[in-house]
Write a structure and sequence with these properties.
- Helices cover about 40% and strands about 20% of the residues.
């Protein structure tokens, strides 16, 4: 089974949350609608600004751990490389 790594934010250059899931559509929808108790709900992080797919959930988990240790400037550069306007990517998930 594959996995997804994603980054949620509330606004451009705002607070970031990095997560991992096997069902990106469901998980992003949960964050958008405030159904996930904790960090994303507390800080209003409802915009999906980065997403990447991996062949296995184990690879996705490893990537999530790696990204969480990156300096903030690297995370912002990663987002802006693929999504320079910090647009909400949720509608593109189809």
């Amino acid at each position: 089974m594959g996995g997804w790594v994603y980054i949620m934010s509330g606004r451009r250059n705002g607070t970031l949350y990095i997560g991992v899931t096997t069902d990106i559509v469901a998980r992003a929808w949960q964050h958008r609608n405030g159904l996930v108790a904790g960090f994303t709900k507390r800080y209003g992080l409802s915009i999906l600004v980065h997403v990447e797919t991996h062949e296995s959930i184990l690879a996705a988990i490893q990537r999530e751990k790696t990204l969480k240790h990156w300096p903030r400037i690297w995370k912002i550069a990663l987002i802006e490389r693929g999504n320079p306007d910090w647009s909400d990517l949720f509608p593109l998930l189809g």
